[in-house]
Structure formats: structure tokens, C-alpha cells
Amino acid sequence: MDFVTPPPLRDDQALAIVAPSRPSDATTLRIGRERLASLGVETRVFPTADPDRDEPASPAARAADIEDAFTDSEIGAVMAYTGGDDQLRVLRHLDGGALASNPTRFFGYSDNDNLRLFLWNRGVVSYGLGLHPDLVCDAELHSYTERYLRRALFEESLGRVAPADEWTDDWFDFETREPRDWRDNPGPTTWVGPAADPDEPVRGRTWGGSFGIVKWHLQADRFLPDPERLDGAVLALETSEDVPPPREVGYTLRAMGERGLLERFDGVVFGRPRTNAPPLEWDPDPDEYPAELEDIVTRELERYAPDSVAGFGYDFGHTEPSFPLPLGGVATLDPADGALRFGSE
């Protein structure tokens, strides 16, 4: 199946704000729309994202909102308001043919990776980032996020993605709006499998998303692509604010290995993991967790995909700031310098 990158947003088109997971909050919706307006983007709020709604719409209604946004010729991009935990229930109500026939740039991640994996199966490239929290949680839109959001909205591809100069692990507080603690970004690290060529860049289409959503799709086994379509792909994963224990990530990768999936990927890109989040069921050490996670992942890759290359600590997913990783886009990972590029399909 061929892939299509939906065309950039045109000046005469609007961006639709939808809520495939949870409905919006009036204040954050207003801030997000103002910041999109500052980028020259007109927005339209679709019914599921109405801030007067107390509960999420039904799965069928949320699917209808997505389809209406994709098939509206006056809409050139669609952005999810925020994530959640039940978008998997929406997918059965979607008309995949209608979405594929009207490819539109979709922005979202976390629970919205359900929809992104659905679009992947139909050959439609989609993008990370959502209105909340990415555009609204700080006093100003972070310049790093803005730079790559502009590219994802208005350009053909992201091109080379540089590491952010800084990052934060602080959780956002919409009540106090306290400034967060930003620290220097050490940049990505790279692992080269024992059977891989350290001088040969890896190039393939990205598949994956938030670890929890990928795990759900493996468990549900209803929306996975044919395994052959993953040959030569790049697995993109990030661990969200759930902060799963490294062993849990390892168990899932091991299951993918035993299923014959992990060996199909030529590369892996892992987002910088968050460790400071709302109350967790365990107490991760913020200084040790990223290294523990990296060790677990590389152990399973060495077992099942020894000719692959993996990069860790990229600025996508639930880390902040972040870039909108194109799921289904062609990624090039250079093990020599850890550089990550998107485009040239």
C-alpha cells in the first residue's frame, strides 16, 4: 500500500478542533485557539470539543466528528483537543475509506495514537502534538514546539529535527501557572545492534506511538497491520505520563519478538521518558529511569533484532517541549551522530 502525506494547510482553510477522547475546557481551548491564531491559523471547534459538554460524546459521535472534519473541503488540518483512555472504542465506528479518500493532516498523540494507527493502516501520515497540553500549559508557546508545528502545518516535511536546547520534567499546574524548571538537554543516545552497520543510516516508515496504546493494539489484535508491512519500518515509542516500569516495556517488546514483529523493524526511536507525573503506582527514580528503560529496550533488541539501530531521548511524545513526529512518515536515523530526519519519501 502506498502512503500519502496530506497536503499542507492552505490560507483559505481552517483547522478543526475535535475531541476524539475527552471534551475541552473553556479556558485552555481559548488559549489554544489564540496561539494557533498567532500562527495565522483559523480554527473551528467541532461538536465533540464543545467546552459546555461534561462527558465525552459517544464513540459513534466522536467517529462522526472525525469523518466530518476530514471530508469538509474547508478544513485543511484536524487537531485533537487532548488525550484520554478509551479512543480504542471509537475505531470500529470509523469509515476508513472516507478518511483515506480525504487525507487531512491530523494532529494528536497519547490516546489519539489509536486514530493515528488506524490512519497508518490506510496509508495516511499523521502528526503528534495536540492542543492540550502542548500549546497551552506555559505562559508562552515554547519556541521549539512552535518551530516544528509550523513545519508540520505548512511545509511538505519536517526535515532534520534538532534536539531541543532545554526540557522539563515538571508537571503543569493550570491553577497556579507557576513557571516550570527547565534544564539543559543532553541530546539523544544511540545503540547499534551487534549485526548492524554503524556507518549506515536506517531509513523507514515510522509505526508505533505511545507505549500504552501500542500495547492495547497488540492485545486487541483488531487494528494491527499485516506484519509484512512493517518490514524495514522504524518503531517509534514513548512512555507517557503513566511511567510504566521498565520491565513492563521489556515484557511487551519480548512478546513482540516472540510474535515475529520486533525483528521486522530496522530502527527504533524512543521519546524522552517523563518521570514526574500525577500519583503513580510506583516511585521511579528520575535520574535512573531513562537509563533503565534504555537497557531493557536494547536487551530485547539484541535478542530479536540484532541488526537494528535504536535512538533514545528524542523530543516527541509526552516530553516537553516536543516536535510532532509524523507517524507513517519516512524517518532516517543516522547512527553516526544520532541525527533524525523526516521526508524524501
Report a brief summary of the structure.
The protein has 345 residues and is α/β, with parallel strands linked by helices. The chain contains eight helices and 16 strands. α7 runs parallel beside α8.
What report would you give on this structure?
With 345 residues, the chain is an alpha/beta fold. Helices cover 27% and strands 19% of the residues. It has 8 helices and 16 strands. It has an 8-stranded mixed sheet. A 4-stranded parallel sheet has the order 2-1-3-4, sandwiched between helices. Strands 5-14 form a two-stranded antiparallel sheet. Helix 7 links the parallel strand 11 and strand 12. Helix 7 packs parallel to helix 8 (289-304). The longest helix is centred in the C-terminal third of the chain and has 16 residues, at 289-304.
What is the topology?
Elements: E1 14-18, H1 26-38, E2 43-45, H2 59-71, E3 75-80, H3 96-101, E4 105-107, H4 113-121, E5 126-127, H5 143-154, E6 159-161, E7 166-167, E8 183-184, E9 189-192, E10 202-210, H6 211-220, E11 234-238, H7 246-258, E12 267-271, H8 289-304, E13 309-314, E14 326-327, E15 330-334, E16 339-342
Helix pairs in contact: 7-8
Which key phrases capture this entry?
single chain, 345 residues, alpha/beta, eight-stranded mixed β-sheet, four-stranded parallel β-sheet, 8 helices, 16 strands, 19% strand, globular
% residues in beta strands:
15-25%
**Helix-strand sequence:** EHEHEHEHEHEEEEEHEHEHEEEE
Summarize the amount of helix as a percent range: 25-40%
Low-pLDDT regions: none
